[in-house]
């Protein structure tokens, strides 16, 4: 359930008010992420790396409460749930479309459901499913991404209230037997600071590393 934040006792109120006076309060940060364990995990289970990273990013964002905040008019609301809304390509086409669905179940279950939903979608976007409880994802698998910006309707009356996080990454690269990619995060500074992006990066790293630990424990159990 969504919760309205009481600004009178909100520790962030002064920072929020400061950046509320800026015409363009949006900024982006790109960081290098080791995704070796995730790539191996996805290959072993024959699931999509793209969908798998979307799933882990959603779970890591849940570990940082600031990413659940949205601006709705005069109120700041903490969401009870967020959903990924991600770009995808049909095979043999260069036209993309946008898939929106809940982030439920295990990583394997989510990847299977995402593939099913995406393959059946025959329209660009379902506008009825577009709300502020989303997380926008995109991928540029043709290049090693170092920075990304996103489109916005800056002339809209409430343009500065847009507080949906936008996450994008590119092609992963091999460095000394490890696999890395750049992950770009674009946010509204009225709600999210660098420390929150840093905590997201830390949470994502822990969740990726946990995939390897899960595999190790299963191996030990099998040997026993």
Give an account of the 3D structure:
- Strands 2, 5, 6, 7, 8, 9 and 10 form a seven-stranded mixed sheet that branches.
- Helix 2 (36-45) packs across helix 5 (194-223) and helix 3 (49-62) crosses helix 4.
- The protein is α+β, with helices and mostly antiparallel strands and 224 residues long.
- The chain is built from five helices and ten strands, in the order E-H-E-H-H-E-E-E-E-H-E-E-E-E-H.
- The chain has helices at residues 13-20, 36-45, 49-62, 107-120, 194-223, and strands at 3-4, 26-34, 69-72, 75-78, 83-89, 96-100, 134-140, 166-170, 173-175, 178-188.
- Strand 5 and strand 6 form a beta hairpin.
- The longest helix is centred in the C-terminal third of the chain and has 30 residues, at 194-223.
- The termini are far apart.
Cα end-to-end separation? 44 Å
Number of strands: 10
Query: What global shape is seen?
Result: globular
Task: Report helical residue fraction.
Answer: 25-40%
SSE pattern = EHEHHEEEEHEEEEH
Query: Quick check: average pLDDT?
Result: 94
Which secondary structure elements does this structure contain, and how are they paired or packed?
Layout lengths: L2 E2 L8 H8 L5 E9 L1 H10 L3 H14 L6 E4 L2 E4 L4 E7 L6 E5 L6 H14 L13 E7 L25 E5 L2 E3 L2 E11 L5 H30 L1
Parallel strand pairs: 5-7, 7-8
Antiparallel strand pairs: 1-4, 2-10, 3-4, 5-6, 8-10, 9-10
Helix pairs in contact: 2-5, 3-4, 3-5
């Amino acid at each position: 359930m969504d919760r309205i934040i009481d600004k009178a006792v909100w520790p962030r109120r002064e920072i929020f008010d400061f950046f509320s006076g800026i015409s363009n309060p949006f900024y982006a940060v790109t960081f290098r992420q080791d995704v070796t364990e995730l790539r191996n995990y996805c290959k072993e289970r024959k699931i999509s790396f793209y969908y798998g990273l979307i799933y882990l990013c959603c779970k890591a964002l849940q570990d940082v409460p600031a990413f659940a905040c949205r601006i709705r008019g005069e109120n700041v609301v903490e969401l009870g749930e967020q959903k990924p809304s991600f770009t995808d390509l049909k095979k043999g086409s260069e036209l993309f479309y946008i898939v929106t669905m809940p982030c439920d179940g295990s990583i394997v279950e989510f990847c299977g459901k995402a593939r099913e939903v995406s393959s059946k979608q025959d329209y660009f976007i379902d506008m009825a499913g577009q709300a502020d409880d989303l997380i926008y994802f995109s991928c540029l698998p043709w290049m090693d991404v170092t920075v990304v910006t996103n489109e916005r309707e800056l002339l809209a009356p409430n343009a500065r209230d847009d507080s949906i996080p936008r996450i994008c990454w590119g092609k992963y690269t091999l460095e000394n037997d490890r696999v890395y990619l750049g992950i770009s995060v674009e946010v509204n500074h009225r709600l999210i600071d660098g420390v929150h992006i840093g905590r997201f990066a830390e949470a994502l790293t822990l969740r990726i590393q946990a995939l390897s630990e899960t595999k190790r424990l299963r191996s030990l159990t099998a040997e026993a």
